[in-house]
Amino acid sequence: MDHSGMAIRQAHRCSHSDGMNNSASFEERLRSIRGRIAAAADRSRRDPSEIRLIAVSKGQQVERIRIAIAAGLRDLGENYLEEAEPKILALPDPVTWHMIGHVQSRKARGVVDRFPFVHSVDGVALAQRLSRFAAERGITLRVLLECNLSGESTKFGFAAADPSSRTAVLREWERIFPLPGLAVVGLMTMAPFSDDPENARPVFRGLRELRDAARAAYPESIGPELSMGMTDDFEPAVEEGATMLRIGRALFGPRPTAPNPGFAGLMI
Fold this sequence. Notes:
Blueprint: H1 3-14, H2 23-43, E1 52-56, H3 62-70, E2 75-78, H4 81-90, E3 96-99, H5 108-114, E4 117-121, H6 124-137, E5 141-148, E6 158-159, H7 166-173, E7 182-188, H8 201-217, E8 225-227, H9 234-239, E9 244-247, H10 249-252
């Protein structure tokens, strides 16, 4: 049976008449984004196949996510456990779910139950809690350590904006690396919003340099992943070494301004 053809036909049936929901429109946007990723990779002499595109499905209905899956995307990012759970249960396709939003301590168990990747480990206490629940389940949770390289007080993460503070950050990470049930696969950051994507470049370069320093000091304890770059700045992120891009609006269009009625507890 041709499962891919069935998925595409199902996605067509589920799509709305609105152009942003149409599968052909989605595939066109996806081709454009992949072309831009490939061009940025070429400029930095990288292989685009080493860059994972994570479709940020926050605020999107299941029908629209099915279109993304039918188009070939297999990595989905969510910010809120309450919103993600019904989607995960409704979409049994071979999808890898990434928690990319801030994780509250009281929701750590649910996150471990639903997500194989957590990009937003922003402190030792959260890492310890995730470790506890992962060890109880007998699984290895792949995590990325979130770093605040912009110095913005509104952002979470290990404070690494000042290069002189990075030794202290590495010391904190020494408490995370040996925790059972966790595999630290790399680092994550968010650049400040700007109309000029080039303004994000120093943040992305700083994360790459911090990753390189961590891997030099602890080669067996931290992986090479760099989760950085979103709709407005993913090209300089690729040029600076991103291995995971978190892209939502450029794929799905503007998010709904009100919660989807199909999801209880949805937050946007």
